[in-house]
Fold:
Amino acid sequence: MGEFSLDWIMGPSGSAEFVMSFPQEVVEVHTTYVGDGLGSIVKAANDLRLGSGSAIAFLPAEPGGTCLFFAGASEEAYLQVVQFADMQSDSGRWSGGILRWHGRVRVSQFIHGVMLMAENVLVQCGGVDAYSRAWGGIPFPARELDTLQHE
Structure:
């Protein structure tokens, strides 16, 4: 297992690409401002940092979305990236998931990558207010990032 990096690339009209670069491949996940995908990733990193053995992050993309499922976490976690076509209807939610990537990641590398990614988003956007305007009024996860950086 090697190093990897995380990137959040803000796009036009309240959309973004979450990019996970692994040593041998890159996984891109499209997400939109119908939810707080960045905040969900930062919260998952906090859960793992605080010792949780599992965590979930959700990146919505109307009507579907992608989930990051972390399991068996200690020094490493097993990560599954699963895309769902429908996460809004009662009858179709969670059905027909497509596995986009799976493998083991170092928890410390993931946490460090999330911190760098979130800090870079603030720089790219020009601060928390600009992020919120660009992201349909959803606030930047400043408190969660602060917790991740300092506790």
Remarks:
- Helices lie at 37-49, 107-125, 128-134, 142-150.
